[in-house]
């Protein structure tokens, strides 16, 4: 059996940090989080371009000055929403992952969490906003990518490298391995949900995750990880 995963992995440490401002790096206050949640609901319902900071202030129950005291622009606010979604995900899944007894169990838990997160209505709403508004607001797309997919894959790559050091995996390019794993988990399901076009012949999420873990371990499994 593989060695138990260290309870102070890079990913678990990242998950315990408070949500921070996308520009300053300062921890977000309860009032700022209130603004973020109000903006998330508005952007999901009306789209990024159609929502004003006045509307955000009213929905959050604060003054417009308070909104601008925390976020200089709608773009900053949207990036904070992405950060909140990713941090909530990390705080949910990482305690389970760090307690996994072996690589297969850890990867299965990560895969199920990735599938659940990517296919959740809230995540899909963010992605649809980026696709619709990205060409007009390229800084919005960059903020989403840096604070969402890129941030998570960096963390996952660090975790895979850590497992390689323990002999549980044989990963020579952690970022590539993280990209491949996420792609395998997402691939068969993502477009169906995004386009609202269910495919009755498509496998369910658990089957997809099991297949992704099997393929990943055939390529990257270490002495104990492939067992």
TrEMBL record:
Keyword terms, alphabetized: DNA-binding, Transcription, Transcription regulation
Recorded superkingdom: Bacteria
Record organism: Dongia mobilis
PANTHER family: HTH-TYPE TRANSCRIPTIONAL DUAL REGULATOR CECR (PTHR30055:SF146), HTH-TYPE TRANSCRIPTIONAL REGULATOR RUTR (PTHR30055)
Residue ranges for the DNA-binding region feature of this UniProt entry: 52-71
Annotated ranges, domain HTH tetR-type: 29-89
GO MF assignments: DNA-binding transcription factor activity; transcription cis-regulatory region binding
Source lineage: Bacteria, Pseudomonadati, Pseudomonadota, Alphaproteobacteria, Rhodospirillales
InterPro entries referenced in this protein's UniProt entry, alphabetically: DNA-bd_HTH_TetR-type_CS, Homeodomain-like_sf, HTH-type_TetR-like_transc_reg, HTH_TetR, Tet_transcr_reg_TetR-rel_C_sf, TetR_C_Proteobacteria
Record keyword Lipid metabolism present: no
Stated name of the protein: TetR family transcriptional regulator
Pfam families: TetR_C_7, TetR_N
